[in-house]
Amino acid sequence: MCPPTYFGVVYAINPWMDPGRPVDVDRALAQWQGLREAYERGGHTVHVVDPVPGLPDMVYAANGGLVIGGRALAARFRYEQRWAESPAYERWFAAAARAGVLGPGGESVGQATEIDEGEGDLLLAGRYLLAGTGFRTTPAGHAEVAARLRLDAQGISLVPLELVDPRYYHLDTALAVLDDGALEDSCHAPLVAYLPDAFSPASRETLRTLFPDAILATPDDAAAFGLNAVSDGRHVYLNAAATAFAHTLRGHGFAPVPIEIDELIKGGGAVKCCTLTLRPHAPGRPT
Ligand code: ARG
Fold first, then answer.
1. 102, 169, 206, 223: which could join 135 in a potential S-S bond, CB 3.0 to 4.6 Å?
2. 77 lines ligand 1 (CB under 6 A)
3. Active centre residues (catalytic)
4. In 163-285, which ranges are E strands?
5. Domain ranges, residue 157
6. Is the CB of 269 under 6 A from ligand 1?
């Protein structure tokens, strides 16, 4: 995670951002701290990336890159305003690898050369890497991720998914991985929730085929950033305002953990956007 020390909405690169609307940085910091403490109470270890002055979107750590099987690839952003985040995340990955945080053979493989907004668009669900495109990460970015993170060798297939609604410009705003299917045993299928309308008809079909038991979110669930959630397979950390989706999750046996995060939603991101998952091991191996 990266604290919102230099957070602000000073440009608009997604429909949620309105530079005319004031932002309260202290409130953003307090909400971010609340999320961090909720993770720690849930037994998770949080590593913190130093924020960089002049990079107001750096708080959305999910976009910093992707780490699978200990290999870390730093992002390359579509918009110039975020370009300087890549070297900052890359330096953090390199230091983490040296410190052993990325596992025994962990390594930073550098920055992407194609547009690739990390876990904003790339979500691991069991042995599938669900890969969003349409607004940010490109198909060339997907190919680069597959090659540089050696997805084939790790037994992972990349599944491209086309996003069509500008409000849901990153995959993690339209789809949540609730159970990656590899958490406790690798026998059950991964469970996801998504907003069908955020996807092209062909991608909707792909999702229906891969995840026949998926939870279909409502437009209100998505608009409340309910899908921008982080799940450990039991606790689902999500925006406190997504009450209907929390109720749905409870009905499926999950324990929703509501997080006040509206100040950070002014930049177009919520819980998942503020969180990058480190995966020292390939899927199916102990984490
Ligand atoms: N303002 C940021 C942008 O438009 C928000 C990023 C949200 N991150 C996410 N993982 N969806 O790039």
1. 169
2. no
3. 170, 273
4. 175-179, 191-194, 215-216, 230-231, 235-239, 255-259
5. 25-274
6. yes
In ligand 1, which atom is closest to the CA atom of 269?
7
**Is 65 within the bounds of a domain?**
yes
Q: Say yes or no: CB of residue 4 within 6 Å of ligand 1.
A: no
- Which parts of the chain sit beneath pLDDT 70? 182-187, 284-287
Q: In whole angstroms, what is the distance from residue 187 CA to residue 284 CA?
A: 9
Output the CA torsion 213→218→219→224 (10° steps): -100
The answer to the question of residue 59 being in a domain is: yes
- For ligand 1, the distance from its centroid to the CA atom of residue 16, given in whole angstroms, is 10
| Residue 163 CA, ligand 1 centroid: distance in Å | 15
What's residue 187's pLDDT?
A: 58
Measured from the Cα of 17, ligand 1's closest atom is 1
CATH number of the domain bearing residue 240 = 3.75.10.10
Task: Identify whether the C-beta of residue 10 lies closer than 8 Å to the C-beta of residue 19.
Answer: yes
| Radius of gyration of the chain from its Cα atoms, rounded to whole angstroms | 17
Q: Which residues contact 84 (CB under 8 A, 6 or more apart)?
A: 52, 54, 55
Is 132 within the bounds of a domain? yes
pLDDT at 286: 47
Position 9 scores a pLDDT of 98
Threshold 0.85, pTM exceeds: yes
Query: Is the CB–ligand 1 distance for residue 57 below 6 Å?
Result: yes
Is residue 191 one of the residues assigned to a domain? yes
What would the pLDDT profile of 173-207 be if each residue is shown by its tens digit? 999 999 987 654 555 789 999 999 999 999 999 99
- Split into its structural domains, the chain has a count of 1
Q: How many CA atoms lie within 13 A of 30 on its CB side?
A: 8
